[in-house]
Amino acid sequence: MRSKKILVATLGVMPVILACGAKTSQIDPTAYPITPLDQVKVEIPDACRLAYENAVPKVAVVDFANNSTFDLANAIQTASAGTESRKYVRGGAWGVGVVGPGVIGVGGVSAGASKRDWRTQSETISRQINAKIGESVAEAVVSEVASIGGMKVYTRRDLQKVLEEQKLQMSGLIDPNTAVQIGQLAGVKYIITGAVNNVNLKWVSLEEAKGAAKGLFGTWGSVLAAGAATQEGWNVIVDVVIKVIDTETGEVVLSKTVSGREVMGKTPQFSYDSIIGGIKKAVAEAVEDIRPEISKLFPLRGYIIQLRTAPDKSKRYALINVGAQQGVKSGQEFYVIDFQAVQDPISGRTTCDQVKLPVSLVVSNQIQTDKAWAVLEGDKAQIMRVKLGQIVERKPLEGGSGLKKLF
User: Where is the signal peptide (predicted)?
Assistant: First the structure.
């Protein structure tokens, strides 16, 4: 009973830890008027106008290679049923009893000869299982990238449809060489692919689980280690390498290995189907770790379309022209960018200098399909520098949390 109380107490602190850093603001933007300062528009130098041509990059996700040993398999299942017939000789009289599987004997013990006859029927079912792990990774990546926003995402099926219209076929896995050709034909700028390099099924003891909690969270880990019993048992650990290829140059612009884990439990034996299911869940957890790099490589941009300021100028709200459809969520933070034209003193060439103001836009609870209200945070003098039309850029997102991976 004592261990259960510790576990409940430990899990009770987890929402508190998760809540740290949550910055969602509940606001009413109409509470503040639109002042003359809120109507000042940014002046855009000619050299910086291209920054407003926010072309959404086209990104295709194709199947991943499966370098693990979990792929095609023949699953054989045998079911047996037995029938037992006993004959007893008792003073010249015969008695016959028929029992089902697992039942021992019929009637009482009798002196005399006994004969036993077993008849067994067995049925064997054989079926081939295709794990399709490479396809599962691609599906998980599509889901993750689409939720990030800021990109137009295509699947392998979408690419194949485009190529078929041109009487072409896409076969096999894609490498940097074929990515250039396919990207030019299908009109996509980037292709995301990679490989499942390792799948490890191992038993994790209670001591190992406690050690992992302490290693991840330090002082808090000692508290959380009390709940580590939930991690004891068979664990599936998956390593996936994810690559982003620029189809114009064939350059690999991003390559990262991510890992995910799924606790299968303490059952001594698992079916192949259940192991594959665990692998796919671990993959879905693993791909969350590409979120920071993908959101930085393909930053979501928009601009300010309305401002509202408190009468004492202590607070300002900004309405931006990106919303839920572009993956904007409460608590996300945006940079506010100012521009200046800079002339090279040697060449005389004028270029655009983009400066991030020392403020932060934190998305509130007011999110619509194509727009969202955010709270301007920073020094009072700095937030008053923000103007209509200034570009906003979402800060890189966080990946999967260590706490989630542990529990």
Answer: 1-22
State whether 219 and 304 are in the same domain.
Answer: no
H-helix or E-strand containing 255? Answer: strand 252-265
Following DSSP, what letter does each residue of 19-39 receive, concatenated? Answer: HTT---B---GGGS---GGGG
Residues 215 and 231 reside in one and the same domain: yes
If one counts the domains in the chain, the total is 2
273: left (phi over 0), alpha (psi -120 to 50) or beta: alpha
Q: What is the pLDDT of residues 48-69, one digit of tens each?
A: 988 887 678 999 998 899 998 8
pLDDT in tens, 285-309: 999 999 999 999 999 999 999 999 9
Angle at 48 between CA 46 and CA 54, to 5 degrees: 125
- How far apart, in whole angstroms, are the C-alpha atoms of residue 308 and residue 65? 51
Domain assignment of residue 388, given as a range:
2-55+299-394
- Model pLDDT, residue 74: 52
Task: Residue count of the chain, please give it.
Answer: 407
